[in-house]
Write a structure and sequence with these properties.
By secondary structure, the chain is mainly α. It is about 70% helix and about 0% strand.
Length: about 210
């Protein structure tokens, strides 16, 4: 009887260990193969940050909920477009979110044609080797770090970054809104991005 009790108390060594949770990249690979369970897992992981960013930018819960659904639909349809050599899955997911929110903002905002006597519009239409400013900022997705970094910028530089990232303005639209030449806006964006990169790197952002 004693032997049976001792045996019952001993830890079992034949139990199958619990499977490890797949990482984000593995989930995206499975989603690309149309694995619905993988999509559900990714949704549970990222629903809150996706919704939070959408709500912060849109200020309207129903729109933020709609964008959240759109984002995960886009991930389902385009998961194979994720490229690990260009960033991590979180950055990609949040960048998808940001671009979708910007689309919504721009569709809801009346657009106007800017007349630029200095000819800067021609320059802006030329292909650029750098991604759009909002895409550059979207790569830095740790909100606390972004806000700390933004606080270090001069007012005029912080203003253009906030207009681009949080309100979806193009550089031409910023120039019109601020009544500044497009060249001035471009310079402010360039200096702001340089400063942000330096501050974020000092803060441990890779």
């Amino acid at each position: 009887m004693m032997d049976e009790e001792l045996a019952a108390q001993r830890p079992r060594t034949d139990q199958t260990p619990a499977p490890e949770e797949p990482d984000d990249q593995q989930l995206l690979e499975r989603i690309a193969a149309k694995d619905k369970d993988a999509l559900n897992t990714l949704y549970n992981r990222y629903m809150t940050p996706v919704y939070s960013l959408s709500l912060h930018m849109l200020k309207q819960p129903p729109l933020a909920e709609e964008v959240t659904q759109d984002v995960f639909l886009n991930i389902w349809l385009k998961a194979e477009s994720f490229n690990a050599s260009r960033g991590n899955p979180r950055s990609w997911i949040m960048s998808v979110t940001h671009h979708r929110v910007v689309d919504v903002i721009r569709s809801r905002r009346r657009t106007t044609t800017m007349t630029d006597p200095e000819g800067y519009d021609t320059l802006e239409r030329l292909p650029s080797s750098e991604p759009p400013v909002e895409a550059q900022v979207a790569q830095s997705l740790d909100r606390e770090r972004i806000m700390r970094a933004l606080a270090t910028l001069p007012d005029n530089q912080r203003e253009v970054i906030e207009l681009a990232y949080f309100e979806g303005y193009s550089q031409s639209e910023m120039a019109e809104k601020l009544s500044q030449p497009l060249g001035t806006v471009k310079t402010r964006v360039r200096l702001a991005m340089q400063k942000l990169r330096t501050v974020l790197q000092e803060d441990g952002y890779e």
